[in-house]
Request: fold
Amino acid sequence: MIRRVSWVLLMALLALIVWGWRERVALQAFPGILSAYSAKEYCSCRYVMQMPGDYCAGYVKQYLPLSALRDDPALRRVTASGLGRSNSAIWVGERQGCRLLPVP
Reply:
């Protein structure tokens, strides 16, 4: 019985490793997606839709929490950090909305 359970666990682990290897590019991109999405959506909520900051913070809240969400109203720039990555979005104008800034 114990051999059977360990065999099943070993096969499940092997399947997980194979899946992880096949999806390695997508898995590497995920940490950046969380902060980029949050910065862009918060910026759009705050400066395009002109909603209050508290509402927009709740709007972009996700299952995985951000470590920081900074809003600079003077520059209309939002920076979100999470999972070790940081991204910024800036309000360009009425017709253009918000744009993600390139990561240095």
Summary: The beta strands are 68-72, 77-82, 85-93, 97-100. Residues 30-104 form one domain. The two ends are 55 Å apart (CA to CA).
